[in-house]
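Quick one: co-fold with magnesium ion.
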Amino acid sequence: MGVNQRDIFMRQSNLFSKTIKEIPKEETSINAQLLIKAGYIDKLQAGVYSFLPLGHRVHEKVKNVIREEMNAVHGQEIYMPALHPKAPWAKTGRWESETEVMFQFVGRGDKDLGLGWTHEEVVTPLGKKFIQSYKDLPKAVYQIQDKFRNERRAKSGLLRGREFSMKDLYSFHISEEDLSRYYDDVLGAYERIFKRLGLDALLVEASGGAFSKYSHEFQVVTKYGEDIIFVCEKCGRNQNKEIIEENACPGCGAKREEKKAIEVGNIFKLKTRYSDAFDFKVQDKDGTLKEVHMGCYGIGPSRVMGTIVEVSHDDNGVIWPKEVTPYQVHLLALSGKEGDTIKEIADETYELFKKEGLEVLYDDRDSVSPGEKFADADLYGMHIRVVVGKKSMGSGDPHVEVTRRDGAGLDFVDKQGRASSADAAVKIKEYYR
Ligand code: ATP
Ligand code: MG
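Sure, here it is.
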């Protein structure tokens, strides 16, 4: 679960970023407002953000959940370039047809170059190099990498970047049936990913263009979504606006509810569209040449991070779910003064948590009032908070107050919400296991 074993604990007095009082005026989306305010991200220009230490941790955790589930469906991780030559794009016709979205420019020696906004043009020739026979199939490769798109409106923070992260998986098959079988496997993996990320993502039918009857989108309903979907409470069959407009929408006949949603992922049967373009065929059992069937499957980790914030926050800040909280515990010393008993107990608690291997952010700051510490902690939204204050002193073992940012209860604390530091360390570790 950790991002990097070497930095599983951090003193807040040493943290690179700070919380910011003023909300940037031009940022109208909730995710950008809260994430910038909390110092998770910083805007370089419209649709382009830096990920600061806490934000980077969340982003990496989102990617790791996706990575685990991609590996579970036998995806092999690779890493393809972002800087592309024109030739493969000219071959599929997308160099000319996608000038709206693709950043294109001229490099040294008058060479036409473009930035990758998707990778069929790179991965298909790559597959062709290593796959020659039915014996080499099926295969699936994926990467987690930055994509570049000259998006028209980049005003929704992480939801629509011009540079953004994407996990793109591509699969190769001997037949349409085998593609369908794998497509269903990936669909299951996607359901697990969004569940683990605490997102209620609806499976929505989308049009597949000329090559497939349907593709599927995973959509999170929220009033800030840019997509419109039609949800059927009765049969559970949902469709996006495109399909409804095409009037190609089977279902149970009940009235569908129109909702705004964010597309967090989609899966698509490419069939032979790209293998045809690159004349990618394999030798079948009977010696004949067969076209390779392909599927592609995308998720945007940065958009997912923004979506989590859109659906999981309150007036005071973010509320991170368990799997992606930047640190597992936010430990607050309500007095940061050296020599103060509160500080001593907090230091000891910090050491106990570290020994247990918990990821912990420790607000050890001196000369910051408890009120400010609580306000910052709310803004950060760490999944579990542990407070050391006046109530921690007294006879017996030092006690700490343990709460969940989402307000849900914890079964190891007493009626006042307290536990001994030692117990808290063990029980919180168990909770995350
Ligand atoms: P949209 O309709 O929202 O533009 P898309 O259909 O263009 O999305 P794909 O090309 O299929 O999306 O990309 C796969 C995934 O990448 C999407 O499901 C989404 O999670 C993410 N994604 C796409 N465009 C962006 C973007 N501009 N910023 C952040 N994430 C994006
Ligand atoms: Mg798009």
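If it helps, Residues 15-80+119-314 form a domain with the BirA Bifunctional Protein; domain 2 fold (CATH 3.30.930.10).
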